[in-house]
Amino acid sequence: MGHLSQWTVGFIVGLLIIPCTQAGIYKWVDEAGRTHYSDRPVAENRQEIELRTSPGNGTPPPIRNDRKATRQRMLDIYREERAARKEAKKKAQQKKAERKARCKEARSRLESYTTAGSIYDYSEEHGRRYFSYEERDQFIDQLKADVAQWCRK
């Protein structure tokens, strides 16, 4: 468990010790991108979490049950956020791998066509049609643009 995770778990456990009767739970993200929970709104980008309570016979439920429900709700929210972060990280890694593969392909094509003596286009109807010097330069410029697009950091 990393330093940030221990801090987050400690913070959540600290919040669970405080009785949360009839108090709203607020969630906010600080400047460093960390998510916090509290019974008071602290930041402008806060989000109030509404806790569902079971309808009773007019008597308030024991504080212990409220704490248990609050703790469970907070743990559920934490699990959902953790799964969302994990999914986002996975997608980012896939995107990075795709960019890397496309960059490698674009560089390979550019090198191949730059060193080629002549470039041609082939069609069934007309066979080989060799590019003029102007067409060749335009084609290589397009390949350079592809390298710039896929290989930027």
Automatic annotation (TrEMBL):
<dbReference type="Pfam" id="PF13511">
    <property type="entry name" value="DUF4124"/>
</dbReference>
<feature type="compositionally biased region" description="Basic residues">
    <location>
        <begin position="87"/>
        <end position="102"/>
    </location>
</feature>
<dbReference type="InterPro" id="IPR025392">
    <property type="entry name" value="DUF4124"/>
</dbReference>
<feature type="region of interest" description="Disordered">
    <location>
        <begin position="40"/>
        <end position="67"/>
    </location>
</feature>
<feature type="domain" description="DUF4124">
    <location>
        <begin position="15"/>
        <end position="62"/>
    </location>
</feature>
<feature type="compositionally biased region" description="Basic and acidic residues">
    <location>
        <begin position="40"/>
        <end position="51"/>
    </location>
</feature>
<feature type="region of interest" description="Disordered">
    <location>
        <begin position="85"/>
        <end position="109"/>
    </location>
</feature>
<protein>
    <recommendedName>
        <fullName>DUF4124 domain-containing protein</fullName>
    </recommendedName>
</protein>
